TrEMBL record:
Pfam families given in the database record: Ribosomal_S17e
Name of this chain's protein: 40S ribosomal protein S17
HAMAP family per UniProt: Ribosomal_eS17 (MF_00511)
GO molecular function: structural constituent of ribosome
SUPFAM superfamilies: Rps17e-like
BP term (GO), one: translation
Family to which this protein belongs: Belongs to the eukaryotic ribosomal protein eS17 family.
GO cellular component entries: cytosol; ribonucleoprotein complex; ribosome
Organism: Coprinellus micaceus
InterPro entries in the record: Ribosomal_eS17, Ribosomal_eS17_CS, Ribosomal_eS17_sf
Keyword field: Ribonucleoprotein, Ribosomal protein
Transcription regulation among keywords: no
Highest taxon, organism lineage: Eukaryota
Amino acid sequence: MNYLEEELGISHRSALARSLLSVAAIVCTVVESLHHGRQKCWLAVGHSVLTGRQGRVRTKTVKRASRVLIEKYYPRLTLDFHTNKRIIDEVAVVPSKRLRNKISGFTTHLMKRIQKGPVRGISFKLQEEERERKDNYVPEVSALDTSATGLEVDPDTKALLESLNFDNIAVNVVVPVTAVPERSGRRERRNVPGAGRS
């Protein structure tokens, strides 16, 4: 521990104090209130002690705020960061520009993920309707109904069914296709140790 203290130039107490401060600083409460007749999302956030400017380290604050914003304002949000940044400026009170940009960046990221499929932790009307529509879908022809076409089996499977007294199942015997290895016009070269190149 002494080596680290000397190398980094910080004492054990200050490192502990710094980590406690950073945990205490990244506390977020999302409070809904009516502001001039329309809903606003208030984000109260402490200043972060962390000074690193590395990308993609998103705190729970940013993620939670993005999810709340998407649930409320999904029809207005887009796949463009700059448009989302202006929308978040209008509908939310965010204490700093840096935090606003982080929230809008993660919101844009989630919007792109939503385009591909449902995202865990986000539930909004359009996604619920899409899920319900997929659950209620009934195909016209069942994949399990083999009465119309019959099962396609190879001769060995047909013999097996006959030996088990399942002759009443309608099956179509299909000759299995064997894969023929491709041959190129050139002769294959083998890596033989000690052989020289010709």
